[in-house]
Write the structure tokens for this entry.
Amino acid sequence: MRDIRERFWAKVSGPDERGCRNWTASLLTNGGGAFFVDGKTLPAGRVAYELEVGPIPAGMRVTRRCRNKLCVNPRHLVVTDHGWLGPIHHAHSTKREERRLT
């Protein structure tokens, strides 16, 4: 059986113009990537983070700086708590408001 890392990255496209590495296999109901390991379905972003960065502390989740649900580029992934909206979401909202005003 192939190594988990090799199997995972075989399901990812090369970087696009924004640097996103997009998941190309199964999807979760929320539109994010789904990866199967040991009979369990795991979010692809979590798997990418754990493979390339390290463990995710209990109670934390993986969010994407790029806001692309299919992106699994570890440079775009950040670990946050469930209530955190922080500067990533604020910056995105501000840009959306600016576009609406022009």
